[in-house]
Amino acid sequence: MRISVSDAKAQLTDLVRRAEAGEEVVLTRHDQEVVRMVPVKKVLTREQRRAILEEISLSASSKAKSGPSAARSQDFLYDEFGLPK
């Protein structure tokens, strides 16, 4: 949405609500864009960040599949004496 600064004065509360909802609000002066209104990112507390990380970790561990050991994954590159083939 594009709106002039002078028209935005009377609609500021509505424009802020629209920007918070994710709509792009651009203020113009003499048909030139001068300001873009965007919502401020919410700052998470340490506990909230930790809870998100734990949720991701649990989700990832439930999706993990067992496979061959990586300990010997590159053995094909070496001969029986440990030298490169």
From TrEMBL:
InterPro entries: Antitoxin_Phd/YefM (IPR006442), YefM-like_sf (IPR036165)
Pfam families given in the database record: PhdYeFM_antitox
Source superkingdom: Bacteria
SUPFAM superfamilies hit by this protein: YefM-like
Entry function: Antitoxin component of a type II toxin-antitoxin (TA) system.
Family: Belongs to the phD/YefM antitoxin family.
Protein name: Antitoxin
